[in-house]
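User: Design a sequence. Structure:
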């Protein structure tokens, strides 16, 4: 039964560590946390239909051809979500500050995927060994000088 669970977990792209989120209190609800999180989820769902951010991420990232596709897809999807959140004004890959993109979008996305992979290795070490399907090296193209 364990491989079935690990196969399901491998479908997740990343997760937010629960200990990084403060426990919900009545004071937080009064401050609008519940409403804000529902609003946030609604906005993220609406942004899901806008493919322009993914096009930007695809243009910026250079990934080795032999990379494990689930790692690549997970990191690209999380990176795209971060780009939408933190840089909604970006309309092309040339608009992106590479340093900020790495710091706020790509690196956190890679860490989120690594968290999933660590959990898989704990659940099913035979299937998800560390040396198998290592995280690919994502390189960011600097397109600011291109015409």
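Assistant: Done.
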């Amino acid at each position: 039964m364990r491989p079935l669970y690990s196969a399901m977990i491998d479908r997740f792209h990343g997760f937010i560590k629960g200990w990084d989120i403060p426990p919900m209190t009545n004071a937080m609800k009064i401050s609008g946390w519940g409403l804000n999180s529902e609003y946030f989820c609604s906005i993220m769902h609406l942004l899901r239909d806008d493919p322009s951010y993914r096009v930007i991420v695809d243009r910026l990232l250079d990934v080795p051809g032999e990379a494990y596709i689930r790692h690549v897809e997970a990191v690209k999807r999380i990176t795209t979500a971060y780009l939408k959140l933190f840089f909604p004004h970006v309309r092309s890959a040339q608009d992106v500050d590479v340093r900020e993109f790495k710091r706020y979008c790509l690196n956190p996305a890679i860490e989120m995927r690594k968290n999933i992979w660590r959990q898989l290795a704990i659940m099913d070490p035979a299937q998800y060994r560390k040396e198998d399907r290592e995280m690919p090296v994502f390189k960011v193209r600097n397109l600011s000088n291109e015409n």
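The chain has six helices and two strands. The longest helix spans residues 98-123.
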